[in-house]
């Protein structure tokens, strides 16, 4: 079953890439889809870029373990600040300005907006230096998931993912990536709902799960957790931080009009609320599902959510 789903997804990437490659005739179409990308594609592209493997392999387990159910506030903050407010403040202004000056990338925007090639080079260097480790962490996170699920070596998993990413970006450009992100977003929504169903069925329901977590430590089920100050910092860090990420802001360059920005803001916010809220809320129950007192017992905090899923999923899905 798992090989069937993976094959279908990879086949979708290849088909979409080849189909969209026929529509790419100019550099503008390659970089920005002709600045004619609709609200749903833009919103899902924003959401799937926001919530990559990092949230499930790392953040959800680590923060859920530390803050308990209060970690859900991080997901809510991501939706309201990282999605809704970011779209409201940056969306239309970014679209209008980049279209007016003809900028297709963030370094190019700095050069044309401020008339400085030095700023362009500096921005390109910052992006290169800091996004390479970020991208590596995403690939490592996905690689670990595939390694545990399919039994393939981590290096092989990462090479396969990089190859299909190259196919999508090289052939169809931004439009191909946006359509694939839309498909991926649907899979993520379906997957996160199924994750919550499996987890709470495994624990005997929401009430039983809350009772079990409260029995471990009452602070883990309190409204703002045991450390409200650090919780606020985490909300700000993971919500405002994305405002400056080039791969996030770039989605506004390509959206087609002001009305699409309004619709995209709503769709992106709902998407972030479901994915972020459910991920962090689920992470809080790692102590209950895995029945451990130390994350090192299952490979560290990064492995908490994947191991929870393997513990809660029915046998037919693991076959």
How would you sum up this structure, described in words?
The model has no long low-confidence stretch (mean pLDDT 86). The longest helix is centred in the middle third of the chain and has 50 residues. The chain contains 15 helices and no strands. Helix content is 79%, strand content 0%. It is globular and about 60 Å long. The termini are close together. It is an all-alpha fold.
Tell me the Rg in angstroms: 20 Å
Number of DSSP helices? 15
Straight-line N-to-C gap: 6 Å
Beta-strand share of residues: under 5%
Instruction: Please give the number of β-strands.
Output: 0
Q: Could you estimate the helical fraction of the residues in percent?
A: over 70%
- Structural class label: mainly alpha
| Mean pLDDT over the full residue set | 86
Enumerate the spans where pLDDT stays under 50 for 5 or more consecutive residues: none
- Largest sheet composition: none
């Amino acid at each position: 079953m798992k090989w069937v789903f993976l094959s279908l997804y990879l086949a979708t990437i290849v088909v979409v890439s080849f189909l969209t490659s026929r529509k790419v005739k100019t550099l503008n179409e390659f970089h920005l889809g002709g600045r004619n990308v609709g609200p749903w594609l833009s919103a899902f592209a924003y959401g799937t870029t926001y919530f990559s493997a990092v949230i499930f392999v790392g953040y959800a387990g680590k923060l859920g373990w530390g803050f308990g159910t209060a970690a859900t506030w991080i997901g809510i903050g991501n939706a309201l600040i990282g999605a809704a407010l970011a779209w409201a403040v940056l969306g239309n202004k970014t679209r209008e300005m980049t279209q007016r000056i003809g900028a297709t990338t963030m370094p190019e925007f700095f050069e044309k907006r401020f008339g400085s090639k030095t700023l362009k080079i500096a921005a390109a260097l910052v992006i290169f230096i800091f996004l390479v480790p970020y991208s590596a962490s995403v690939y490592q996170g996905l690689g670990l998931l595939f390694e545990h699920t399919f039994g393939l070596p981590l290096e092989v998993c990462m090479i396969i993912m990089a190859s299909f990413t190259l196919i999508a970006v090289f052939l169809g450009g931004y439009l191909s990536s946006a359509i694939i992100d839309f498909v991926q977003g649907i899979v993520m929504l379906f997957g996160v709902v199924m994750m919550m169903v499996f987890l709470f069925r495994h624990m005997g329901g929401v009430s039983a799960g809350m009772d079990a977590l409260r029995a471990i430590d009452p602070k883990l089920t309190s409204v703002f957790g045991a450390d409200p100050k650090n919780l606020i910092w985490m909300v700000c860090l993971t919500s405002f931080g994305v405002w400056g990420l080039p791969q996030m802001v770039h989605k506004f360059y390509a959206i087609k009009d002001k009305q699409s920005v309004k619709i995209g803001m709503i769709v992106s916010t709902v998407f972030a609320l479901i994915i972020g809220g459910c991920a962090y809320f689920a992470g809080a129950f790692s102590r209950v599902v895995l029945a451990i007192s130390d994350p090192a017992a299952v490979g560290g905090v990064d492995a908490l959510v994947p191991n929870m899923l393997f513990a809660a999923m029915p046998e037919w899905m693991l076959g």
